[in-house]
Amino acid sequence: MPRTTTEAKEMAVRRQLLPGPADRPRTAHNMSSSSLRKRSDGSLINKVPCAALRAFLANLNEVLLATKLFLLLPAVLLAVAAAYLHFGQVWVFVLSLIGLVPLAERLSFLTEQIAFYTGPTVGGILNATFGNVTEVIIALFALRERKIEVVKCSLLGSILSNLLLVLGTSLFLGGVTNLAAHQPFDRKQADVNTALLILGALCHSLPLMLRYAVASGEHALVSGAAALDLSRACSIVMLLAYLAYLFFQLKTHRQLFDPQEVEDDDDDSVTISQDEPVLGFSSAMIWLALMTLVTALLSEYVVTTIEAASQSWELSVSFISIILLPIVGNAAEHAGAVIFALKNKLDITLGVSLGSATQISMFVVPLSVVVAWTMGIPMDLDFNLLETGSLFLAILVTAFTLQDGESHYLKGLVLILCYAVISVCFFVIRRRADDNQLDGVRWIMEH
């Protein structure tokens, strides 16, 4: 995928038509990923005599080496090798998780490159939807394997991780680093995301409440698929709300979501306010397709080997899906959110954590239900009492934490502790259930 002479001319022409920094769509999630990029050293490449080879190496350098996470990219090849050479399913699971970290950041980079050429509206939609493409791909593969519990738990875990762990860690470290500084942020963006998250929590709660209302005899069950029908109707409403959110974000109230431009203090890093592409449109599209295919391959490895990892580590699939998968899978954007919090740029940090949680809750979850519907798989929005209660309380705690428009380290610490308690709760509950099953087996054997 070299940047040929024709493509270079195309870029030169298009550059005159590209939107300026004020018009170019850049989400907080996109800027968070940018903080993990670095300047590519092209001194050696410029010495290559062949122009075509020089262009190809420059293209390869920008895509594979211009990131601080390039040291994790070999895990992608190791995961594929481990799968084909049968090194063990646990090794495949671990290497695939590690490989997904740089791939997620590279997908964000390539999406931003394409957004240079597509205009603010299309570019904004690309940035908004590709921000959580890893979760979408994992959910689709899990649905294909009919592992509905993995889909629900992984998506729930991503929401909890963004609301409590990412935001909590960012506010805590940012507060400790900036003890003597004032730490304000814009409440308007937080209020919009919180309102959508509450709508999502309502849609999750209704199928659960319907099940308990019918079980208690308060209401007669008209159809055995009533909860499933309700979930599908709620999913359509959530998708419509997400479309309205995109229109609100990209058109009518764009000023609320435009992150401030920040110059990176590190000389070895690329400036966040970069206003021209480093890849041609054709190259970026080809690389995006390749990276998406590789991400899909590793996501399939994760889905097919999660049970083996669960048995080997003596952890339940639910605990791995809710706690471990989101922590590792979203490590790149999490690191970016923390970096901006350390620089006291809390609007970008909130845009990353709340924006990702909103996208997963209002887009990825209902999309999974609709896709499962088309596949004939009975996936609903009933995430069970403990899971739904944890989601509602996490949204409530986050909303109260952000209500005054200011931050300090104690708020971050409270969110981290909430996440720790929820993690222990899922670990203890699942292990207790496993212990009860083992006790039952022992009783049968003894009697």
From TrEMBL:
Protein family according to the UniProt entry: Belongs to the Ca(2+):cation antiporter (CaCA) (TC 2.A.19) family. Cation/proton exchanger (CAX) subfamily.
MF annotations from Gene Ontology: calcium:proton antiporter activity
Gene Ontology annotations of biological process type: intracellular calcium ion homeostasis
Protein name (record): Vacuolar cation/proton exchanger
Xref: PANTHER family: VACUOLAR CALCIUM ION TRANSPORTER, VACUOLAR CATION_PROTON EXCHANGER 1B
Superkingdom to which the source organism belongs: Eukaryota
Membrane-spanning residues: 69-94, 114-143, 155-175, 195-214, 226-248, 284-303, 315-342, 348-373, 385-403, 409-429
Lineage: Eukaryota, Viridiplantae, Streptophyta, Embryophyta, Tracheophyta
Database matches in InterPro entries: CaH_exchang (IPR004713), CAX-like (IPR004798), NaCa_Exmemb (IPR004837), NCX_ion-bd_dom_sf (IPR044880)
Subcellular location: Vacuole membrane
Organism of origin: Oryza brachyantha
Annotated membrane topology: Multi-pass membrane protein
